[in-house]
Amino acid sequence: MLGSGKSTAAKRVAVALNYPHYSAGDFMRAMATERGITLGELNILAEGDATVDREIDAKQKLFMDTHDDFVIDSRIGWFLAPDSFKVFLNLDLDTSAKRVFGDMVAKKAEREGEIAEMPETFEDVKVRLAERLASEKDRYKKYYAIEDYQDVSHFDLVIDTQANGIEAVEKLIIKGYNAWKAEA
User: Fold this and answer.
1) Residue 123 has pLDDT above 60, yes or no
2) Residue among 164, 20, 15, 148 at smallest CA distance from 89
3) Alpha helices in 67-147 (DSSP H)
4) How many whole angstroms separate alpha carbon 21 and alpha carbon 135?
5) Angle at alpha carbon of residue 68, lines to 62 and 72, rounded to 5°
6) 136 falls in which pLDDT band (50, 70, 90)?
7) Pick from 11, 113, 159, 181: most CB atoms within 10 A?
C-alpha cells in the first residue's frame, strides 16, 4: 500500500540481513526523469502506453531472475518472482495519505530551509493516492490479468503498519523470512 513504509522496511530488512536493497519505484522515478516528467505524469502515461509498465517490469523480472539474496520493494514483485518470500504491508487510505502528505511537508521544509506554500492539501494527496491505486489496479489487470494486486492471498506475510511501528515491522519480516527459508 502506498505510504505503508515499504521502502523504509525494505531498506531496514536489507541491512539486517546484509542483502542489497532495490526498489521498483527507483526504476519508475529514473524513467520519469529520463522523460522529463513527474512520477504522476508517468503513471498517467502508463495508462495508455503499455510499454511503460512492461519496460519497468521487464527490468525487475530480469533482475529477480538473475540475482539471489536481495530485498526489493515492488507492487507486483509477488507476481514477477512467485517463488520468493512475499510481504504485504497494509494500511488504510486515510493513514496512507497522512503519511505521504507529512513526508511532502517535511521534504518541502528541508529544502534549503525554505518554507513555501504546499502545492497540495491533505485531501488532494488522498484523492491522488486513490487515483494512483485505481490506475495501477486497472493496468495490472489489463497487462497481466491480475484481478487485484493487493489480494493478500498472494503473500506469505501481511503486516498492518498502522498497528505496527517500523521496528516491529522489521522484526516480523525477518522472523517470517527465516521461518519461510527454513521450510524451503
Assistant:
1) yes
2) 164
3) 77-80, 93-110, 122-144
4) 26
5) 70
6) confident
7) 159
Instruction: Return contacts of 135-141, CB within 8 angstroms, 24+ apart.
Output: 135/43, 135/44, 135/46, 135/47, 136/43, 136/75, 138/47, 139/46, 139/47, 139/50, 139/53, 140/53, 140/75, 140/76, 140/79
State which H helix or E strand residue 53 sits in.
helix 50-66
User: Taking the C-alpha atoms of 160, 152, 128 and 104 in order, what is their torsion angle to the nearest 10 degrees?
Assistant: 40
pTM for the full model?
A: 0.83
Average pLDDT over residues 151-179: 97
Residue 117 has pLDDT above 50, yes or no: no
Using the 8-state DSSP alphabet, how is residue 120 labeled?
S
Q: How far is CA 86 from the centre of its chain?
A: 13
**Residue 97, all three cell numbers:** 495519505
Distance CA 39, CA 71 (A): 22
Q: Residue 19: is it exposed, middle or buried by C-beta count within 10 angstroms (0-12/13-18/19+)?
A: middle
Neighbours of 12 (CB within 10 A): 20
- Bridge partners of 158? 88
Find the angle CA(127)-CA(137)-CA(150) to the nearest 5 degrees.
95
Domains annotated for the chain, with CATH where assigned, are 6-183 (3.40.50.300)
